[in-house]
Request: fold
Amino acid sequence: MNFDRIQLNRRNLLKAAGAGLVAAGTAGCSSSVKPQENPGIIGKDGKRVLPWSNWSGNQHCQPNERLVPRNEDELLTILRNATQPIRSVGSGHSFSALVPTDQTLLSLARLRGVENVDADALEADVWAGTRLSQIGDKLWEHGLSTINMSDIDTQAFGGALATSTHGTGKELGTLSTHVKTLRIANAAGEMLECSAEQNSDLFHAAGNNLGALGIVTKARIRTDKAYYLKEHSWMMSEDEGLERAEELRDTHRHYEMYALPHSDYMLGIAIDKIDPAEIPTDQAEPSGDAYEAFRMMSNLIDYMPFARSWLVNFGAGGVEPETRYGKSHEIFGNLRDIRFNEMEYTVPAEVGPQCLREILQTIKKQNIPVIFPIEARYIKGDDVWLSPFYKRDGFAISCHNFHDKDYKKYFAAIEPIFWKYDGRPHWGKIHTLKAAEFAARYERFNDFLRVRKEMDPQGLFLNDHLRSTLGIS
Amino acid sequence: MIKKLSTGLLLMIACSANATDEYSKELYDIYCTACHAVAASGAPQAFTSEWDERLDKGMTTLVNHAINGIGNMPPMGTCAECSAEDLEDIIRYMAQEQ
Reply:
């Protein structure tokens, strides 16, 4: 989620709470991480192999080998000569244990870039190691924009495709639904191409592949003509936000909500295309300290938990409406890497607001110590076999907590609510489901396993987490 | 003659101390700018004197911080392709005042 969309102001909080107490409360803001001295091990080639940790720091491993192929041929040679399991890593934005391995960790970071742009056909090739944030500028040079984008855009493109990464929009699917063709290397070191017409089973499995089918190296994506966006955000009451969710979804290209736990407020964010001629020349500069304000509030509440609701309501009540304009990728993207841990489930669109209401009520009722906003987004259904949006329009509810605060009790309290509403977890975020539960949620689960076995009979691309979630011994 | 040679040698040393290869600059652009080029992030800003005190801690410490993550900085700055040497090169690059 993008904190910079909330014009919460630290100055107001300081006035509310008193600078002395706030200063005490924020003293622990730095890091709870104790740096490991000289991390890493010496690999079989005599070189230092660094440990790996994901973006938020809740997943760790010490691989015995790290490989970074420079081209597809080098990748295929690695696969043909592999003697131990290989896990592929993107930018480490998954909170579930998709990546950890004590054997080979492979990065496609050097297979990056956007090429073969066809402005007439509205298509382009994107290498798997490309950061999502690198795609927009390059397409813009050719008069194109991505059809949609996630609000955090620091993920690697290959990782985004592996886990059905999405933005928001009633008529807009995940990034995988923009893919026209894919190139994927199997465990035998053979390069395969697939599309909805060619190797279609592989294509429908690969749109949410978990890195379990092979190594996706490149995809040809559909794009849109370059466009500008207007983003308008405003605070409303929680009741109004929940009651108007469907109406606002239907009237904007993109619509999402940030619900503020323990408050009576909800932020609405509507994004629409705009003619650049209508963009005002004197745009207000954002205050840019929403994250720090929340961080401060969270630390303050640790010292005076009895004031939680009052403080959150005080902060939220001072948030003014804001409008931003810009090129598509400038509005979609998130500038700052703000770390948190996250659970996200997608429930059927029609019960989304009801599910969100129950979560907010549960947080209040159980007095769960969290103030991190809950993000809720509408996403169009698709035909990707393991996509949380498979054959149904979805309402994705994302619950977070700061990366250095406990999230387990919070997530344990709300996960059963998602189950009650037939929720499907985001594969790259925190969940507790195992293979039998996934099989019950996905009618093509066994077809995915069949394709996986064809691509990788010996389990070269599996780790413990994947064996558990896919039910492979 | 000796004076000219000495001056030339000093210039060479000065240049090599500041030279950064294109790959390190590319890594910086991809992985570091989101925070180290945005003052609101709270991260030490590239090409400013904010690195002076940090460099006093020693390069090993700074590289270890980058590997482990520190504060809001994610481990390795999410650079899965970076070696410890790459991280050191990037730190030296960012620590240059421009």
Q: What stands out?
A: Helices of chain B lie at 2-18, 22-36, 51-55, 59-68, 84-94. Residues 1-5, 7-17 of chain B have pLDDT under 50 and may be disordered.
